[in-house]
Amino acid sequence: MVVGTEARSVEDWDIVYICDWLPPDFGAVGQYSELHSREFAAQGLRVVLIGLTSQPRGRVTDESVGAGLLRKVTLAAPFYEKTATLKRITWTARMNTRLLSAAWRYLRRARKVVFTGSPPLFLHWIAPANIVLKKTLVYRISDFHPECAIAARGRASLALDLLYRLTLFWRRRVHSFEVLGYDQMVRLEHIGIPAERICLKRDPSPVAIGPDTVPLERPAAARGKVLLLYSGNWGVAHDTKTFVDAYREHYRAGPGRVLLWLNATGSGARQVEQALTALQLPFIRGAPVPLEQLAGLLMTADAHLITLSDPFVGFVLPSKVYGCVQSGKPVIFFGSDRSDVHKICLDSGLPYYRRVGIGDVEGGFEALNQLCARSGAMTAASGEKIAAG
């Protein structure tokens, strides 16, 4: 491996891959971007992966992967408060400009450019630049912007409507799109992107989970409880109210044995924490773990929780679904059957999967109670097996 602050020389590259936060910083898009970049390099390609880091200084590292080469370029960047609109706009413009500037030397000698939906609106930098570059542009549309901002507001402002129209103009000049689910494919076809320019390419689980995966230490407060894990980002796109109301009823009128393990960041996580605290309902507050501990974390929980608000279906696909399914543990999804989360969970053969529609508090109450009943039956069966042995 060669490590330094400057690239060794100007060379030809097969793929330049651009995203936001790269590991070890927390960010699902960056985790998957690195996985995909390694897959390309393993095929014998020369790949440059460019993204952001919270470290004080950026770096350039070269790594041989199979018959290919992966060059990882990180740019030092500050975090920002997503709820502060002006700061978010300023940060996005600065980072998109820096990413394009840092990538330029590689873009000029690249055959293909892959870029993601994060940072938001990078399309507005790379698509105009491609008028000069004339490269094959592949848009891995992990999240739709500005549609997510419009969905969060409930309607488009004049500025968002103009931005949306400009976004459609540049999207039509992208050569091909990679989508995470069929729900995203429907969204693209709805705005006039031809089906032949859209390819379904799901993300894999960010970690490998097998018989040798060792769970983390179980929280002491979870003794005698069914530990329901929400891990990762719980943001504006993810429902909170239906789950909180169902959880409240589970403790008021149900067995009260499900215990939420909130290992999450984001505005939704803060809302859930505040709501459950005000209701004096038990939960365990944690934080997302480093990637190397994620497999153990997923296996520590008894079940997993996923949520998605209806206006965001097809604009966002919660990436946590891949790890949850890989764990083989039960999953409760609060969201629409139009979301590919539902399809992925149904097709996975999970031992217990329940979808709850947004606003269906009674359905959420029943799902939590059934999870308890299932856990009790498994515990009893395990005890009988031990006694017979």
Structure description:
The protein is an alpha/beta fold and 389 residues long. 40% of the residues lie in helices and 22% in strands. It has helices at residues 28-42, 85-107, 123-133, 147-153, 158-171, 182-190, 241-252, 267-278, 291-300, 320-327, 340-347, 361-388; strands at 2-4, 13-21, 46-53, 59-65, 68-76, 110-116, 136-140, 176-179, 198-200, 226-233, 258-265, 283-285, 303-307, 331-334, 353-356. The strands form two sheets. A nine-stranded mixed beta sheet has the order 1-4-5-3-2-6-7-8-9, sandwiched between helices. α3 runs parallel beside α5 and α7 (241-252) packs across α12 (361-388). The longest helix has 28 residues, at 361-388. The radius of gyration is 22 Å and the shape is globular. 42% of the residues are buried.
Quick overview:
The chain is of the alpha/beta class and 389 residues long. The chain has helices spanning 28-42, 85-107, 123-133, 147-153, 158-171, 182-190, 241-252, 267-278, 291-300, 320-327, 340-347, 361-388, and strands spanning 2-4, 13-21, 46-53, 59-65, 68-76, 110-116, 136-140, 176-179, 198-200, 226-233, 258-265, 283-285, 303-307, 331-334, 353-356.
